[in-house]
Structure prediction request, 288 residues.
Amino acid sequence: MKFIAGLHRVCFSFMNEKIKIAWFGKHFGEEPPISGSENQGAGAIFFSGCNLHCVFCQNFQISQNSLGKYFSVEELSEIMLELQRAGAVCIDLVTPTIWWQLIRQSILLAREKGLNLPIVWNSNAFESVEMLQQIEDVVDIYLPDFKYGDEKIAEKYSQVKNYPAVAESALREMFRQKGNLQLDENGIAKTGIIVRHLVLPDNLENSFKALQIISNIDKEIHVSLMNQYFPVFNAGDFSEINKTLDESDFEKVFDKQSESGLNNGWVQERGSSETFVPDFEKTNPFSF
Prediction:
């Protein structure tokens, strides 16, 4: 009884704490099984703050400059239900890691109130196995952005040590929990893992190493290879990434992905990479 009482005290404490959110709404820019059709969309919730400090972060307004407003655990649960009523196909939690305890309580509360959508944990993969085990019961789909296969590059651009090792352990735990991607009859993700990788200019070896790590986990993993890099925030401090990505470099990474046996997933089409940069000062940051 003492253990149960202690647990209830912890939950009550969480109910009085606040979570910082930058934006929420229906979002159509994720992978097809996450966004659904043009009439559906992911129920995205973008959280403020981040445990990485990427110099090229496209969401720097919220991840580094902490733009946003505070919401209670109960208010976040109501946001999830509002997105469900709006016709979203999932609840897409973007950069949730630093708020994981409060988010977990919000999901549990929302489920008590009738939330039945899949929960997507959309993170940067720099997470501990212990933390991931604590959210196993509330997350259905993992959508990690596996940024670096090269430890020195991770420290240079994101000011973090041991990224490849920590992130690989996280990916393995995510895969252990959910396995490969499973879709419903309408092509919407129900459970599983999709691993994203953003190709950086003049950093081919970093991408090659990242893809090799992914393929060592399981060659059937769905990979989303991203071609949307644009030099924003503090990227100008590093000449090699202060430019857009050369298409021939992206093709080399794609070829390496194929050579690694990673044939499931998506390849982002070439476009104006600047258009992928949101503006969280706007009512709709993704008005492009």
Residues 163-178 form the longest helix (16 residues).
